[in-house]
């Protein structure tokens, strides 16, 4: 009897890979949006800051982050499903840590009204994104490639954060 139950469970299909990927995309987008839910970026303090000439229009941020979090979700799913790959655990761990720093940036910068602290957080995030790309590369090259636009945006955001600090120090 026990062996027939085991055989049945082995034959049961798992969740559709597309549904899994969508789940990862939704999860990363939800986690990434948490700081915006709990802290407002539209504050009198921020509006009063001098902005650099290259500061993008406000609509650019939600569009860019939604796209980037979608790419991150797909990349995370690609790594997660490679259960046989060496280095997978490190890659997943680095992803979680870099997401924690990503989430920490908004309250550091906006809630605490501290561009210098935000700069420290985003520079640590940049290093963690580079490490995550390298760890993902060892598991799935496609997943690593999906993180490159994120690195480019975090680089731009780091420069922007630095300029906001410098102009308003």
Automatic annotation (TrEMBL):
Enumerate the Gene Ontology biological process terms: tetrapyrrole metabolic process
Q: Which InterPro entries match?
A: TspO/MBR-related_sf, TspO_MBR
Alphabetized, the UniProt keywords read: Membrane, Transmembrane, Transmembrane helix
**Signal sequence residues:** none
What Gene3D superfamilies is this protein classified in?
TspO/MBR protein (1.20.1260.100)
Q: How does it sit in the membrane?
A: Multi-pass membrane protein
Spell out the subcellular localization from the entry.
Membrane
Transmembrane stretches in the record are: 21-39, 59-80, 92-110, 116-136, 143-162
| Any one GO cellular component localisation term in the record | membrane
Per the record, the similarity remark reads: Belongs to the TspO/BZRP family.
Q: What is this protein called?
A: Tryptophan-rich sensory protein
Q: Which taxonomic lineage is given here?
A: Archaea, Methanobacteriati, Methanobacteriota, Stenosarchaea group, Halobacteria
């Amino acid at each position: 009897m026990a062996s027939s139950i085991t055989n049945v469970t082995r034959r049961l299909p798992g969740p559709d890979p597309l549904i899994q990927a969508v789940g990862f995309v939704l999860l990363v987008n939800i986690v990434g949006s948490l700081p915006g839910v709990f802290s407002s970026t539209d504050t009198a303090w921020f509006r009063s800051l001098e902005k650099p000439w290259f500061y993008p229009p406000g609509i650019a941020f939600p569009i860019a982050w939604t796209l980037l979090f979608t790419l991150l979700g797909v990349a995370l799913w690609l790594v997660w499903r490679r259960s046989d790959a060496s280095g997978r655990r490190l890659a997943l761990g680095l992803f979680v840590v870099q997401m924690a720093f990503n989430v920490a940036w908004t309250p550091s910068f906006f809630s605490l009204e501290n561009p210098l602290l935000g700069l420290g957080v985003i520079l640590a995030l940049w290093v963690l994104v580079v490490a995550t790309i390298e760890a993902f590369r060892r598991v799935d090259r496609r997943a690593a490639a999906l993180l490159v636009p994120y690195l480019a945006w975090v680089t731009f955001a780091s420069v922007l954060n630095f300029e906001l600090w410098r102009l308003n120090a």
